[in-house]
Structure formats: C-alpha cells, structure tokens
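Homework help board

Subject: predicted structure for assignment chain

Our instructor gave us this sequence and asked us to write out the predicted structure in token form, then describe one feature. I got the tokens but I'm not sure how to describe them. Can anyone check?
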Amino acid sequence: MRNDDGMSNEEGGTYVNPGGEFTRDQRYIATRITADGRDGYPVEPGRYRLAVARACPWASRMIVVRRLLGLEDVLSMALAGPTHDVRSWTFDLDPGGRDPVLGIERLQDAYFARFPGYERGITVPAIVDVPTGQVVTNDYAQMSLDLSTEWAAYHRAGAPRLYPEELRDEIDEVNRVVFKDVNNGVYRCGFAGSQEAYERAYERLFDRLDWLSNRLANQRYLVGDTITEADVRLFTTLVRFDPVYHGHFKCNRQKLTEMPVLWAYARDLFQTPGFGDTVDFDQIKRHYYEVHKDINPTGIVPSGPDLRGWLDPHGREALGGRPFGDGTPPGPVPAEETVPIEHTPYAA
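My token output:
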C-alpha cells in the first residue's frame, strides 16, 4: 500500500526513497462529480461527503476552497485525525472513532467499498458517495477546480471567482510550476535518499521561491488582482514551511519569516477569511513529526515556532487588488468546523 505522500508505508512507515530521488505516485481515481453527471455522479446537495485531514496540504486546498465558495451546507466534511498508520487515515477525532455520517472508522473502508483490494494510496482529500459509502474520487487537483466550476449553481452569494475563464491558462501554468518545484518540491527535499537528489530538489525549491518573490513584489496575488486557485495552492505549502518543511524536510536556506515578500503575502492570505481560519498548526506538526518515523524516529514534535507573527500587519493592501473582487468574504466558520483556538496564533 502507498500512503498520502506517495511512498511505500510498510513496517510502520518508510518515506525516504533509498534509490535517491522521491517520485510521487500520481495515479488517482479520476472519476468526476459534474453538473451533467457524465461519469455517473451528478452534483447533488447533501449526497457527498468530503473526507479531509487538516494536517495534509492537498486536503487543506479543498477545505479552503469549500469555505471560500460557501459550500458547507452542500458538501459535508469528514475530518480525519492528524496521523495515520500503514492502512489508512482514521476518524479518531469523532466520538467512538467513527465518522457519524459514513459510519466508518477508516477511510480505506470507502475505497474498498468501490474497489475491493485497492492497492494505491488511501489518500485525502477524497469525496465519498454517502448512499453507497463508496469513494468517488481522490484526484485532488481536479476536485478543487470542479468545486469552482461544476458546483457553481450552489456557490454562496458573493463567492469569489477562483478559476475565471479568462485567467485559466495563466493559473494553470503557475500551478504547474508551483506544484513541481514548491508543493511537491518540499517533499522531494524531505524524502530524498541521496545527497545529490536532495541538493537538486533544494536548488529547484529555492530558485522557484525566489521567482515567486519577484513575481509578488509588485502584485498582491499570483494571477490577476483577486485571490484565485493559484493562491490557494501556494498558501497551503507556505503555511507549513516554518513549522515543518524548514527543519523536518531540511528546506533550510531561509525560513519563510526571512523571505520578506513571501512572508507578507502569506500573512495577507492567512488574515483573509477562508484561509487562516482553516489552519490547525498543532495537527500539521503532529502529522509530519509523528508519522515520518524514518526521518524523525523519536516522534518528538517541536514546540515552536512562535505563531504570533502570522497576525502582524502585512502592508500588502498598498499593492491594490481586492481579495474577493466584486464579491464578499465568507461568513463565520460553522461551530463544528472551528479550529481549536489553542492550535492557532490567536492563543498567544
């Protein structure tokens, strides 16, 4: 079986590739939920459940997009705990360790319900068809785009245009290079099995972060003058950079807090409703430091870093731009989805 980071997870967890360079397994379930139901799964309010873990950057994208678009009452959310074992993510945050809607303890049960003996990654995010208990898709890149397009009839009033048609080519190109060198680049550093593979990934990562700093020095957002899918995808890596990637994955040329443009950009997004209010720093750190035992065999979770800087003024308003365009911010987080305050910068 392969885990959410795309590597073999036998004997309690092996993530580093002994052959050298980390290669992510990107064979996902490509079934789509669409307005016309062409794959057999039409968009229907209440029919599906989004399985996520706040620890996972890929799942965090879906949490942010779902909240920005106001789909909470249309697509319910199952929250797995921050750690998993060789078999699967588990719903150990729920009473009795069982998701109250799907009635399962492990996400693998939904995968096996559709594909008995499924041998690829039991990954989050995944969308499950509630009536059958079967997984529909775990193709995270397409899933968030479909929330913006196929689910448009159910967006809240004032929802932002995260994937506007006139900017899609540019968004797609930015997403492509950010995924290759940054989103996946940090894993290529952390899971490298040779000095040479690590150094190649390290150089690519920081070259791309320098490129992003230059791009964002004079514009508030990555593409256009509002938040888009591109900002969501970069944010979920940046918010994890100092807590886990800098130390745990040896991405240590600089901390995010030492890269002035990206640090201000990340704070700007964090302080935008729909971004920072979905982030659980405690779960993020527990996942990486407890699960990756071949990198951190003691399982000790660091106490730092100090999170209070996330609330400092960012000054990015001077660049113009409007986060929601002609729309409005999302409303308050539903009570049952609120991140515990002790896991946020607001606890200080």
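Reply (TA_rk): Your tokens look well-formed. For the description, you could write something like this. The first helix runs from residue 57 to 69. That's the kind of observation they're looking for.
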